Amino acid sequence: MPNSWPKHLGVEASLKPTKWDGMLASLDSKRIDVVINQVTISDERKKKYDFSTPYTISGIQALVKKVTKALLKRLMI
Does domain 4-75 sit in CATH 2.40.50.140? Predict the structure, then answer.
């Protein structure tokens, strides 16, 4: 997707990986023009930014180190 929309719009794009903690600040300061990431749409952000229709929906997940069934059984006691 990131490579298809510039072609569709007839513009050139330079894709640059950016750290999450500076992404919106970079957009605010006009160092970048577009953010392509899973940014949560909030009422506060909607006041400041124009969002596309979401192209993915991702819930919150928890992640732990892979465990064996035996360890899992011990933890469930």
Answer: no
Q: What are the φ and ψ backbone dihedral angles of 58, each rounded to 5 degrees?
A: -130, 125
State the Cα–Cα distance between residues 16 and 27, nearest whole angstrom: 13
Residues 14-36 have pLDDT tens digits of 888 888 888 899 999 999 888 88
- CA trace torsion 20, 26, 31, 32 (10° rounding): 60
Instruction: Report the predicted TM-score, pTM, of the whole model to 2 decimal places.
Output: 0.59
Length of the chain, in residues: 77
Distances (CA, A) of 4 to 9, 11, 35, 59: 9, 10, 15, 26
